[in-house]
């Protein structure tokens, strides 16, 4: 998964959780001039713009002091949305029975993209039912995974992400 390096996670997660939010995941895309640090937050009551602003303000101060990232980057704090990304195996467990889009580093059954229902988490793999087929997808083989929103399933469409 596209999780940020461990030293960034160790700095950011405690601040987000200390403010009363769940740190769903952290994406870091380094670039000399256009880097991006995106933090996904959630709470039982959902996320509003004020929540993102509050977390962003706290993180900005810490990142300025600690300076863990070389070069310029943009800080973004966001709700995971209905097509929430998955960063941890435990997130798949939480959504058993839901549809997911998974992109893979290496093909499984000659395919790099899988869309299906999360059936179970088995050790370090996720069991995904696609049509009549059940695939055991190792978590480490996933480059990206996102929940498929219910409204897309009802329309028969798929997420383009």
UniProtKB/TrEMBL annotation:
This is Ribosome maturation factor RimP. Gene3D superfamilies: Ribosome maturation factor RimP, C-terminal domain, RimP-like superfamily, N-terminal. InterPro entries: Ribosome_maturation_RimP, RimP_C, RimP_C_sf, RimP_N, RimP_N_sf. Required for maturation of 30S ribosomal subunits. Keywords: Cytoplasm, Ribosome biogenesis. Belongs to the RimP family. It is found in: Cytoplasm. Residues 87-150 form the Ribosome maturation factor RimP C-terminal domain. Residues 11-81 form the Ribosome maturation factor RimP N-terminal domain. It comes from the Bacteria. It holds the Pfam family DUF150_C. HAMAP family: RimP.
């Amino acid at each position: 998964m596209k999780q940020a390096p461990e030293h960034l996670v160790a700095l950011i997660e405690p601040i987000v959780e200390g403010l009363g939010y769940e740190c769903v995941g952290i994406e870091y895309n380094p670039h000399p001039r256009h880097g991006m640090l995106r933090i996904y937050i959630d709470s039982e009551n959902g996320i509003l713009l004020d929540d993102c602003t509050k977390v962003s303000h706290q993180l900005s101060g810490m990142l300025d002091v600690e300076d863990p990232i070389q070069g310029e980057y943009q800080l973004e704090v966001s709700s995971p949305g209905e097509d929430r990304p998955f960063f941890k195996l435990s997130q798949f467990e939480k959504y058993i029975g839901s549809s997911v889009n998974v992109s893979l580093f290496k093909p499984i059954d000659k395919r790099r993209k899988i869309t299906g229902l999360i059936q179970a988490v088995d050790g370090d793999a996720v069991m995904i039912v696609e049509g009549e087929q059940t695939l055991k997808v190792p978590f480490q083989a996933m480059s990206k995974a996102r929940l498929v929103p219910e409204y897309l399933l009802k329309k028969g469409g798929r997420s383009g992400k």
